[in-house]
Amino acid sequence: MTERLALIGFGEAAQAFAPGLAASLAAFDRKTDLDGMRAAKLAEFVRFGVEGCETSAAALTGAGAALSLVTADQALAAAEAAPVEADCLWFDMNSVAPETKRAAAIAIEGRGGRYVDVAVMAPVHPKRTSVPLLLAGPYAEAGAALLRGLGFSNVSVAGDGVGTASAIKMIRSVMIKGIEALSAECVLAAEAAGVRAAVIASLDASWPGADWAARFDYNLDRMIVHGARRAAEMDEVVRALDALGTGSAMSRATAARQRAIGGRGIAVPDGLDAKLEALRA
């Protein structure tokens, strides 16, 4: 058990976890360095009762462990910039390629820290600290014990090699994020052609109980809100697949579709009709 826990990145995941964690929480988020976002981020620190820090070094001072919860494109940079104290457990919870995690492990362990590859295997809402976590690396068992002590209730170990948990998450994302992108392409085309109801009826007949209208609505919701972040994750998926040599054409297209919808910057409309209208505008 650690008395002080550093949260590096204080976005959706960190805010979902914070209320259920049994530790004194210190947080750093690089958005506090941006004039247009600083006030809102500082207010979030106060609202969640965490100690807001101006630097990652301040958040990590005295911390026995840290949760890295930044965006995929910042995961390695966060590890390289983190002045962890000796034996600090660095839980890299970011959705990045195994190669990225191994590079981050070198950075953390080069300063005397203990690196743990963590894959968050489901959306953090509504599960919060009961979300499934998959750990890997030489410090995975020690890390699992500490996470359980902090309040995470669904923790398992995939193996002792850094990158194992990440590989499982990345390859799973080929399907999960790919289905989102494919469903967006399908329903947008069906709407444009004026045959949405018929397409949904045909899909429901092929997959009894699937409720494709609800699936389209949910998937578009996730892409509108998280498309930019999902695209960054899919860029890492492409990197992982290219390293394996198995091909990444579908994942490249998924990243492009996620980025296109997430980049629209629209407020999430309520219901499938409203979402389609907003996306076609």
TrEMBL record:
InterPro entries linked: 6-PGluconate_DH-like_C_sf, 6PGD_dom2, HIBADH-related, NAD(P)-bd_dom_sf, Pgluconate_DH_NAD-bd_C
Transmembrane segments: none
Active site: K169
Keywords on record: Oxidoreductase
Any one GO molecular function term: oxidoreductase activity
All residue ranges annotated as the Phosphogluconate dehydrogenase NAD-binding putative C-terminal domain in the record: 190-260
Keyword Oxidoreductase included in the entry's annotation: yes
Top-rank taxon: Bacteria
Pfam families tied to this protein: DUF1932 (PF09130)
Protein name: 6-phosphogluconate dehydrogenase
Originating species: Sphingomonas metalli
